[in-house]
Specification:
There is one protein chain. The chain is mainly beta. Helix content is about 10%, strand content about 45%. It has 3 helices and 12 strands; from the N terminus they run αβββββαβαββββββ. It has a 7-stranded antiparallel sheet with strand order 3-2-6-9-10-5-4. The chain starts with 6 loop residues before the first helix and ends with a strand. About 5% of the residues have low confidence.
Length: about 170
């Protein structure tokens, strides 16, 4: 095994770790936006951290054009995407301001926007944020959650592309 510490090699290696895909969404009033406007970003860094209190963590790239919005959000929702939602994942992974489609969202019982048809959702209040290299770790305390009424398969990312899993 070669002993490489090249960032490109590291990225390729970590691409062999299959992850779920989620969308973080927030309400915004910044820079002339209307009250209740939505911002959304695709992530594959979601991890459960603690059960008491219930905490989740996701990673925000420090060079993101919307870094201040997400890093400063007091509340946010995370929608865990289901198989077949690849187009949503691609749309909200785009750099800059994504072309948001109101049809992609519904309002969760907590008032936060969530992706319609997702496998599940968590509503969070920012618990902490920690700088970590070129990203910031955002920890959220879960204040609400919901699962799809019927069983769905997760959207999975592996080797730089979306994959299906057999259950």
């Amino acid at each position: 095994m070669p002993d490489s510490l090249n960032p490109a090699d590291f990225r390729q290696l970590m691409g062999q770790f299959a992850t779920g895909v989620a969308v973080v969404s927030v309400l915004t009033e910044a820079d002339g936006a209307e009250v209740g406007d939505v911002a959304a970003m695709t992530i594959n860094s979601l991890v459960s951290v603690s059960l008491d209190p219930m905490l989740v963590c996701w990673n925000l790239q420090n060079s993101s054009s919307q870094f201040a919005l997400y890093a400063g959000a007091e509340r946010f929702a995370i929608s865990i995407l289901a198989e077949g939602q690849q187009s949503l994942a691609r749309r909200y992974a785009a750099r800059g301001s994504s072309a948001l489609s109101p049809a992609d969202f519904q309002t969760g019982p907590d008032g936060l926007p969530v992706i319609a048809g997702a496998l599940g959702h968590v509503a969070c209040r920012r618990f902490a944020a920690h700088e970590a290299g070129d990203h910031t770790l955002i920890l959220g305390q879960v204040e609400g959650m919901a699962q799809a009424a019927s069983p769905l398969r997760p959207l999975v990312f592996f080797g730089g592309r979306f994959e299906e899993i057999a259950l």
